[in-house]
Amino acid sequence: MLSYVTVGAIDSAQSNAFYNGVLATIGWASHADWPDWRAWSEGGGGKGQTFWVCKPHNGEVASFGNGAMIAFGAKTKEQVHAFYDAALSLGGTDEGPPGPRPLYGPDWYAAYLRDPAGNKLAIVLQT
């Protein structure tokens, strides 16, 4: 079954550099690259959940959804920190540093941020 998430890019080169660096921290790599489109998946094989960044088809400026958030899974706390640190170093902005999130459960460890286009992301470890 095909399962994917797509977000818009304002500046494709900036978004692609951001996601190349951030997603590498959790073992994801690009598996498709076309003008103004790029896709990533775990291991770069294009199988399972995939994540796409593209310029909108309608030619309008990309915008983020109010209340929308995309969460990526981490396997370790170190991956949560690496993802978050990479995001900030590549133009992302902080929405909540790595740490426990007891509101969501005793085994929830996460960080929240926005990519350069304003899309809200989370990196989550649930043990």
Q: What is the gist of this entry?
A:
By secondary structure, the protein is an alpha/beta fold. The protein contains 2 helices and 8 strands. It has one domain: 2,3-Dihydroxybiphenyl 1,2-Dioxygenase, domain 1, CATH 3.10.180.10.
Spatial order of the strands in the main sheet?
Answer: 1-4-3-2
Low-confidence stretches: none
Task: Return the domain count.
Answer: 1
The rounded Rg comes to 14 Å
Written as H for each helix and E for each strand, in order along the chain, the element string is EHEEEEHEEE
What would CATH call the architecture?
Roll
- Rounded mean pLDDT is 94
Q: Count helical runs.
A: 2
What is the subunit arrangement here?
A: single chain
Please tell me what the overall shape is.
globular
Please give a structural write-up:
The protein has 127 residues and is α/β, with parallel strands linked by helices. It has one domain (3-57, 70-126): Roll (2,3-Dihydroxybiphenyl 1,2-Dioxygenase, domain 1). The chain has 2 helices and 8 strands. It has helices spanning 12-24, 77-89; strands at residues 3-8, 28-34, 37-42, 49-54, 70-73, 93-100, 108-114, 120-126. The strands form 2 sheets. It has a 4-stranded mixed β-sheet with strand order 1-4-3-2, with helices on one face.
Keywords:
2,3-Dihydroxybiphenyl 1,2-Dioxygenase, domain 1, alpha/beta, globular, 8 strands, 2 helices
